[in-house]
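Researcher: We're teaching a course module on how sequence relates to structure. For the next exercise, students receive a sequence and then see the predicted structure as tokens, so they can try to spot secondary structure elements on their own. Here is the exercise chain.
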Amino acid sequence: MGMILGIILLLTAVVTANVVHLIYPKIPLSIYQIIAGILLASLPTEATNFTMHSELFMMVIIAPLMFNDGQNQSFRYLSSNAKSILSITVGLAVVTVLIIGEFLHLTLPGTFSLALAFMLAAIITPTDAVAVKSITTNMKVPENVNGALEYESLFNDASGIVLLELALATFRSGEFSLSHGIWIFLYVFFGGIIFGAILGSLLISLRMSLMRTHVDIGSIVIPINVMTPIVIYWLAEELHLSGILAVVAAGVVHSILYDRLRLTSTKVQMSTTTIWAIISDALNGLVFVLLGVMLPQVLGRTSLENLGKIAALGFVIYLIATTLRFIWVRLKLINIHSTNLNRDSLLVALGGVHGTITLALAFSLPVMINDHEFAFRNSMILIAAIVILISIAVGAVGYPMILPPKSKSYSKEEFQQQFIKTVQYAVNELRTSEKYSPAKAIVMDQLSSQLTQYHEFDHKVYEQLLAKAQQVELATLDRLYEEGKVSESENTFLINFANRSIFRISKHRFLDFWIILWHRVKWHFIQRKNIKKHPELAVKHPNSFLTSEQRTRGTAILAIINRDIDDFLHSIETPENASEVTMVRRTYFQRKRFFSHDFGVENDQVTSIFIEAFQLEHSYVQEQLAAESISQELANALNEQISTDELVYTQSLD
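Model: And here is the predicted structure for the students to work with:
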């Protein structure tokens, strides 16, 4: 029960951090998540007293994250830039471990043996592209820099893991063989890639076979896809290969599948993308929240005297690693196709933000080595945590100073305003085409409901519009009665029905109250006058005329009233009051449906009108683009929103 509560608290912390970042996005999301973890650790409950099981952590959290990153990469880019990728993921990683390891050993020989120094250097070598993205969300990062950072984070994780294993084996045995070390590195590194690519290809063949014979079977294919990284990582580790590189390779092979599928199996692709986006966001959040939870535990085992020294050492290690990254790019040891080499070198250097793998490697250090307690474990975890925090903080400060803010050719308000106009256009075209039908009314009502998500509802405006609509309703009843289209009993019932609805759903101004009261008094005298002339018209129970025939008559009259109200609302509708107009229109639409018990509209008819409406929306966007009233970027965003709405609707038909 404690574990379940702990997981719930972790997820709650992730969601809370996301909400706070949504409100104030200037601080990186990873910082919010770390703070949420620290606050979580302060709660008076044993449920937050987590123990990090590195093997489970790597298999259940890191492997799916790396697999998803691999799925989102381009195999064409990888193959055409293989030399540069190997340079930054293997060459730079090995040089960083060697230089930082030698520095630690020479500076603090009594504390760091060569093996121990290389262990710490290997831990802080891996970078985290997700942490970089959380920093640069609102900044325009050059494509060449962004690509280099993403592909580096895919493969240098394995370099760090393999180098850590070599250093740890040397620390245990006290011996190191260069030839054996190189062989192990090549076996683990390239063996993991080959193994992952083969298994990934086999799983793709299985998926393709299932989809060819059974069309889109998402309930089978998607679970296979989600389980793929866990199974591949476990099998690779059992063969002493790099599980991380195996899942990355499998992910890249899957990206080839998605390129080939394109418009085939769209439902599976959309569902898979959505599921992986949710999984990725949740797991990344969990990593940084866990870092925040673990920090108080690690700090509690460190004396104040040593804390300052450890913090200083962490800063120096980060400084050396960042400088090496700058020099590596500046000397063109990696070709990032730069037009501004100094700037891009600095961006790549600051982009060496550490996160998930660094944390996992630090906690993977054994508690016991050769039957003795590993005394440096806590200090090395703390140094790794400090390097992570410094790298995030420096990136959060440095990137905004170098990069311009991300901008679009349209603002959020412009998109919302144009989308409202697009929906209004479709509704108006449906209103003016052919004759009125219940199915068309349903579609118009549901389309109009979209407008409420982009407009803050003003209850005062709604009340004013509702009062005017009710005046139109009473005026229509007057006209119908004078034209002889409504009988005495029908008119009496509908007046009472309207008045009850008015007082039930609205608050009125003083003038509105007297207008309604005047109608009630007027119809009272008209009724008495007609009864004196024609006693046979006396209605003892005006509400009792709701036989099947009379209900049909009442429904027809309400349809006339609703059309008059709809015409009135259309004449005053603007993008500014669209939400309130929609609610008034919906009020009368639902009242008519309830009165007539008209809930049995043909679904096929509604679907046909919906498809027509979406086509009208696309046509409107193209017309506005042709007239140069909107930009191409805004037109693309509107078309994407319309297509998404259409996809969601068609999926709801299943």
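Model: If you want an answer key for the exercise: The CA atoms of residues 516 and 522 lie 10 Å apart. The chain has a mean pLDDT of 80.
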